[in-house]
Amino acid sequence: MQLTGNDKTYLVTGGTRGIGRTMVLELARAGARVVTCYRRDAEAAATLSRELKAIGGTHHVTQADVGQPDDIARLVDDVAERFGRLDGIVSNAGQITHTPVEDLSFEQWSEVIATNLTGPFLLVQHSLRLMERGASIVLVGSRVAQAGLAGATAYTASKAGLAGLTRSLCKELGPRGIRVNVLAPGVIETEATAGMAAEKRHRYEQMAALRRLGSAEEVAHTALFLLSDLAGFITGETINVDGGV
């Protein structure tokens, strides 16, 4: 069995930065065709396109805001026109706001929920017409969904909601041979952690049994596993990649 292959097509949202970017590159290196999207950072999208071209294969980077229903529909239509099928999706795009609950506006709450929970739901809904038996859906959650995080109530609630969404989707889509799982990273080395204060970094490291932060590659490799036939009997689960928090 192979993790992926040159006959496979995957859609990864939020794939131009951080964990998503690493997922896209690892899928391309494994020989898959990859479509990904970005919200605003055109420069990151351009550098990713160049990296994908150097790897080789057929890939596509486009602009889409997964917090906007019309953008999701357009994104999946684009995949349908280019490739006509999907072997798996990784719903990775996300948004966070660090705001105390008493100061959290309804607009902030709604925007985070739209991107992190409604977006994945709509992505799955639109993508199903392109998916056949054996396809895999990976929703990127967060270890925070189980632990909680002060000042991030909307983010935590949205990521916790993915677990319930996944449990229901796995029951509904299981008879069709489509698997659905949540991938929940802990604190991972990305652009976002590069400027972290030493004291804060040490605190996060001590929270993990392995006493370190995770790498984007470690999360990406778990995503590739969940997308592959090697995880053929795993569905409805939340897989923590957190170093043993």
Automatic annotation (TrEMBL):
Single GO MF annotation: oxidoreductase activity
A Pfam family matched in the record: adh_short_C2
Signal peptide (from-to): none
Occurrences of domain Ketoreductase (ranges): 8-191
Keywords tagged on the record: Oxidoreductase
PROSITE patterns in UniProt: ADH_SHORT (PS00061)
Membrane-spanning ranges: none
Similarity comment: Belongs to the short-chain dehydrogenases/reductases (SDR) family.
Name under which the protein is recorded: Short-chain dehydrogenase
Species this chain originates from: Amycolatopsis vastitatis
